[in-house]
Amino acid sequence: MTASATALATHLATLDRHLARFRDNGILNLIAGQDVAGAEWFETRSPVDESLIAKVALGDAATIDAAAKAAKDAFPAWAAMEGAKRKAILHRIADLIEERAEEIALCECWDTGQAWRFMSKAALRGAENFRFFADLAPSARDGQALPTKDHMNVTSRKPIGPVGVITPWNTPFMLSTWKIAPALAAGCTVVHKPAEFSPLTARLLSEICRDAGLPDGVLNLVNGMGEGAGRALTEHPDIKAIAFVGESRTGSMIMRQGSETLKRVHFELGGKNPCIVFADADLDRALDAAIFMIYSLNGERCTSSSRLLVQDSIADTFHAKLIDRVNSLKVGHPLDPATEIGPLIHQTHFDKVAGYVEIGKQDGATLAVGGTRQGDAGWFIRPTLFTDATPEMRIAQEEVFGPFLTSIRFADEAEALKIANGVAYGLTGYVWTNDLTRALRISDGLEAGMVWVNSENVRHLPTPFGGVKASGIGRDGGDWSFEFYMETKNTAFALGAHTIPRLGA
Ligand code: NAD
């Protein structure tokens, strides 16, 4: 047996032990510290071979109501808890995530199809998210002193109340921690509705939080469908805000659903991010980054560089190298450490990605690599590359959300920027050039919430994360997260006897 086959066999045996209890009891909701079974159930299946992982408790409006009540009841004590104590509990959660990182990563790979080489790091990044916001918990309420001649204005912040967190199925563990950690650090209580396609690790996170001593009701887990539990959460009057990660059109629905109760919303939505490669760039590094940013995480990544914009003069040589590398990508079992691309999450998603292969061909782009199903069990697709696409084609405009790259040629800076900005989305942009002033011009002109110059998506947690246009509303990271989960109050103290207008005197 090769080393990677041995590692795969070991992973499968360990995973099997971890899954045994879910096979017996199902994946339960967790409300007010109690495990809650469903009156009804749905199934989660592995995209590797469509085998049943477990039945999952199906939450509905009544389940959400119970969870929202638990979050409301738990809020006053959690909000009033000294920041240093909240900090200690959040660090304990991070400790337990690290202790169970292997279990989390194995479950995540099996439930989502994401490759082990990326998921083992994503579990640890979840712990990092908790540590980062744990350290900010004691200062989350801090405000400013804004004196005038007559008044001392003092601002302070308070947690907004119980909040709803709704997460998608791609890298669900990491994304859940990214939302839940700052909410808890701010002093909010949470009802979490994870994606129905990948509920496993949300359950692990809720257990870890309970084991770490998070008081009952501070984090509640309700599984269910978007139209059922998800919708009820966004409409619940006791839930003050919704932090949502998912598709842009779901964001629109949530905004409508939350309008009656005037919900505050924070949206991290879709993307169609350009990677712009100029002829003067370090082309080997640009190639590595372009491949990594679209084919890692199965391309099921909001920040993926799904549009390659490549300057005419180097396009042929760049494409030749790209085609070689994409042909060599290893598609396989997600628990095999050698695998670079696992199966897509679900048949419906496979059908969507495969549908875009047909659309690209019909629109006249060149299918240079892939586009076909691999094997006949599971939802594996060969990494796909279309070259010589034009900016108005659907594969150059719409989010495919798979290992699917669309390459478009450009002549000069002005055309690159026009193409880059000519889509509905605006999450990230990647710029490759060794001309400093060009880098400044292009990064300034890009309609995006985040730009990386001569780099792939390397995150630094204190920096703002989020998109513009159809890619989102609001920012996460550092103090930006607290702006969402907290209310700011200004109190003005008169410094003396300033003149008060006298009416009717
Ligand atoms: P989705 O919008 O279909 O589902 C996301 C969540 O919303 C799920 O939990 C779902 O059950 C719930 N939902 C669906 N309808 C709802 C409704 N009417 N009311 C309330 N909740 C509802 O998204 P997905 O397919 O799970 O995830 C992929 C999408 O997420 C892609 O568009 C991707 O770009 C985006 N994404 C964005 C970021 C970011 O940071 N910008 C990060 C990851 C993923």
From TrEMBL:
<feature type="active site">
    <location>
        <position position="268"/>
    </location>
</feature>
<feature type="domain" description="Aldehyde dehydrogenase">
    <location>
        <begin position="41"/>
        <end position="490"/>
    </location>
</feature>
<keyword id="KW-0614">Plasmid</keyword>
<protein>
    <submittedName>
        <fullName>5-carboxymethyl-2-hydroxymuconate semialdehyde dehydrogenase</fullName>
    </submittedName>
</protein>
<dbReference type="Pfam" id="PF00171">
    <property type="entry name" value="Aldedh"/>
</dbReference>
<keyword id="KW-0520">NAD</keyword>
<dbReference type="InterPro" id="IPR016163">
    <property type="entry name" value="Ald_DH_C"/>
</dbReference>
<dbReference type="GO" id="GO:1901023">
    <property type="term" value="P:4-hydroxyphenylacetate catabolic process"/>
</dbReference>
<comment type="similarity">
    <text>Belongs to the aldehyde dehydrogenase family.</text>
</comment>
<dbReference type="InterPro" id="IPR016161">
    <property type="entry name" value="Ald_DH/histidinol_DH"/>
</dbReference>
<dbReference type="InterPro" id="IPR015590">
    <property type="entry name" value="Aldehyde_DH_dom"/>
</dbReference>
<keyword id="KW-0560">Oxidoreductase</keyword>
<dbReference type="InterPro" id="IPR029510">
    <property type="entry name" value="Ald_DH_CS_GLU"/>
</dbReference>
<dbReference type="GO" id="GO:0018480">
    <property type="term" value="F:5-carboxymethyl-2-hydroxymuconic-semialdehyde dehydrogenase activity"/>
</dbReference>
<dbReference type="InterPro" id="IPR016162">
    <property type="entry name" value="Ald_DH_N"/>
</dbReference>
<dbReference type="InterPro" id="IPR011985">
    <property type="entry name" value="DH_HpaE"/>
</dbReference>
